[in-house]
Amino acid sequence: MSARDHILRRVRTALDGVSPAVEVPPAPRAPDRGDLVALFVERVEDYRAVVTRCAADEVEQVVRDVVGAARVVVPPSLGIAVDDAVGDEGFTATELDGFAAVVTRARVGIAETGTIVLDHTPDQGRRAITLVPDLHVCVVDASQVVADVPDAIALLDPARPLTWISGPSATSDIELDRVEGVHGPRTLHVVLVG
Amino acid sequence: MSGAFVGMPAFPTAARAALGDTQLRRNLAHATRTIRDKRAKVVAEVEDWEELRLAGAGVKEAALRDLATHLETLEASLVGAGATVHWARDAAEACAIVAEVTKAHGADEVVKVKSMATAEIGLNEALEAEGIAAWETDLAELIVQLGDDLPSHILVPAIHRNRAEIREVFRRRMGDVGRPAPDDLTDEPAVLAGAAREHLREKFLRAKVAISGANFAVADTGTLVVVESEGNGRMCLTLPEVLISVVGIEKVVATWADLDPLLRLLPRSSTGERMNPYTSTWSGVTPGDGPQEVHVVLLDNGRTRALADDVGRQALRCIRCSACLNVCPVYERVGGHAYGSVYPGPIGAILNPLLHGVSDEQTASLPYASSLCGACFEVCPVRIDIPSVLVDQRAAVVDSHRGDRVPKPEALAMRAAAWTFSDSRRLAWAERASGLAGRVISRLSRTTLPGGRAAAGRLPGPAAGWTGARDLPVPPEESFREWWARTDGGRK
User: Which of A27, A112, A170 has its CB closest to that of B230?
Assistant: First the structure.
């Protein structure tokens, strides 16, 4: 008997006579927190990420100020003009290591947890480009901010690879003290539009 | 390479040694207090935490009760999304599959994101035997691996090490396996984390094969989920060409929406954060993005044994948050090594016997490594009633010795008690004997319990083990029945 059939048979034997019907209570919703965008900003900043709020016509200037003279990689359809930025051409990991910054958009922002979710569509690019450079500038529209995790889950497409980002890379492995900056981008700069 | 838990002594022996290590106790007390406070703060923020726990427990329990169906659905979804699915009955089969896939790509090294399942099956040691170097990339796992140490916590395997000890391990060992630690390495956590970043980056950039576990596997979409902090997970899941994920069959949830309560419960219970820095989800292969060859190894290794246990089945709901370790008064004092397994603490004390049975002395000692205070149940995000399972596993240990040719002293004492209690004349006789003993012992006793009752000190013979750490209240000189007869139920 194959390992597959053997395991499935053992599972069925183990559950012989056990009713599969379980009442699953619905997960509760967080109460109304008022201004979602303000909460989102507060919670993102709580992870020691940097947040800049601006109007739609100021985005390019803000991004320019944030990246400065850094060598920047951008996804194929960012829709924001970034000086001297290089469009991703399927760079290898080593080539990406030569970039200091990346600018992307996002799919959704979660206010309750201060989380940004990327679904790596062409305005965000492949997963690797938001991982290897040390500075991630993420442009989020205020209209993309939802209240809580269940709202994000309902919006997201699980067939896409997803990256949920809550602050810069961090660890609590040394005496359980949170320290920012291990393998992912050490600086996360969120530009909130609107 | 870090060692494996082989030939470990039973819990009481290991615990005695650990209790003598004052540095270890100081490190643990500091770390567990920090994490307990952090968790309490973010849990208090959620008004309906209890309802959220019920929802999380319900989602996991429902998945377990119909596990065969969900596993078949998961397999079909994964294959449909371009992944290759393997099944492994035990550790040896799982390790062989991983080694075979790695060798097929001509790789002699793999990068690993922290995974309890791969630690459980001893994958690093198995790969080493095949000539494949497995690089742990989680900071705490790296500390354990470089220090040739054993993990002592589910979330923070190097919780028993303080910053000065970690600095020493990095200075001494990093150069042997790659980029050495910088000369000016201090014991600042941020500096230590920076050294790990530099040391591991070359390994991430050149790795062809990565190995992960999964926190959750969604049956209807074929999605695997890895929850992490440092970004080493993203590196492993994104940069190499080949990704092999070893997933326990109990990680399955039915639907994408089922992730909601779990993704809210886990970070708050685990690192005490509203959300962990990075969560990655992927469903098979995405053309042009990430690994183009994706393998999933579905692992049994005792899980079907636990599934068959009506009381213990709930332990398979565990989402490995480690909150139960951090609140456990026993764990806080002895640390993780004394449990002799990659799963220490209260959850380990039930999971190990459920997965492997209680036939060996070490595993059989674990259900007793608890005061049954219940703090673990209170914090468990998926409401595993650990104290009840502990008691049930103690019964399993006793049952396993029923056929022994030479019964244990405890079994003899229980048999004697049953014989005495089953006959009122025998009981009366025993009460008179105990009253007499009480009169004698209280004359000799020099210990007084709160409330003024005398207590026996250290007793000789088989009772020595029990009285070595406890006070035995002196038996009353007059039994209830004698008092009733003398006073006519208090009327005289």
Answer: A170
Domain contains B326: no
pLDDT (tens digit per residue) in B363-411: 999 999 999 999 999 999 999 999 999 999 999 999 999 888 888 888 8
pLDDT at B290 over 80: yes
How many C-beta neighbours within 10 Å does residue A178 have?
20
- Record the tokens describing residue B179, joined without a space: 């980029």
Quick one: tokens of B438?
A: 């009480």
Q: Which of B238, B292, B305 to mutate to test the interface with A (most CBs of A within 10 A)?
A: B238
Boundary residue ending a domain (B304, B336, B365)? B304
Q: What DSSP character marks residue A121?
A: -
- Tell me the ipTM for this assembly: 0.97
Query: With a CB-CB cutoff of 8 Å, which residues 32-91 of chain A face chain B?
Result: 43, 46-47, 90
Q: What is the pLDDT of residue A7?
A: 98
* Domain architecture of chain A: domains with CATH: 34-193 (3.40.50.10420)
Instruction: Please name the residue that has the structure tokens 């470990």.
Output: B8
As a whole number of angstroms, the distance between CA B364 and CA B395 comes to 11
Chain A residues touching residue B73 (CB < 8 angstroms): none
For residue B161, give its domain range: 52-304
The domain boundary residue, chosen from B304, B335, B353: B304
B271 touches chain A (CB under 8 A): yes
Q: CB–CB of B335/B161 below 8 Å?
A: no
Q: 0.90 exceeded by the pTM?
A: yes
- Provide the Cα torsion B220, B223, B226, B232; round to 10°: 180
- Percentage of residues in chain B with pLDDT exceeding 70? 99
Pick from A172, A178, A188, A190 the residue to mutate for testing the B interface (most B CBs within 10 Å): A172
Number of domains in chain B: 2
pLDDT at B2 over 70: no
A137 bridge partner residues: A103, A189
Contact between A178 and B274 under an 8 Å Cβ cutoff? The reply is no
Closest C-alpha among A193, A21, A25, A46 to residue A112: A46
Is B194 at the interface with chain A, CB within 8 A? yes
CB contact under 8 A, B229 and A182: yes
Determine, yes or no, domain membership for B325. no
